[in-house]
Amino acid sequence: MSLIGRYSPYVEGNSFLRYVTICSVISMSIVLAVWLFFKNSLQSFEGVPISGAFLFLLVCPLIGIFGLASAPDLSLKMLEHPEREHLRYIFLFIAAILFGVFGFLLLMSNSFKNKRLMRWLMTAFFILAFAEFSWEFRHHYLYPEAMKEWISQGKKVEDFARYYDNTTVVNIGILGRLIQFSLIIWLSVYFYKLRHTNSWSPIVSVIFSLLGIITAIMIYFIQFNFPKGFEILMLFFIPGIPFFLLYWLGVALLTKSKKSGISRIQN
To answer: What count of other Cβ atoms lies within 10 Å of the Cβ of residue 46?
Structure first.
């Protein structure tokens, strides 16, 4: 990702179109590789590997996001290049869609055939998680336009962030992270119990998800005034982290299914 970061549109002189083209080529290559993987390998678990592939494909928008190599520019300078922030949230929208497809395929599979209550509960979690992602990304996608409108009304740009990302918006984000990280823990443990993943997957997912939950709770009580030395926890509030953990789960599912397929061939 550091290599693609050299082409980030945030770097002065770099072409926005060139960055989009590079990300598109990389993504198409990954999609092709995943398609070939399924075409030439056995499906070890009914329904799970296919849905897991959509989690693995989260790497495509994640590469684009982390390749930007810059935090969102929330200053007045944003209005000079609003397309950069739009691109960031387009990547996140794509990630949310992949997450939604994964959830749909999983819930429609036979994994919950005799577990109606669990299916309904997990459906509710998926809907809430997806709804918050969608609302949050739309909210921030429109940030440049809202800032422009704010300034056109003669208001101070310094007051805009406090107005646009007010307490209600932050609290919705907190609720979203609590739901999303809780769902990741649930999925990680559930797949491990089904022997669809190895033990390293839920360990990593649970640890980082708990950090995300702790961060959300801290923000609820102290806003973003983290004690010195705890500022790094802010990373767990950005939307890219839940998607990274979901990608990690996708890797675990595909890795396990590939090994099982090889074992089946050998036997």
So the answer is: 10
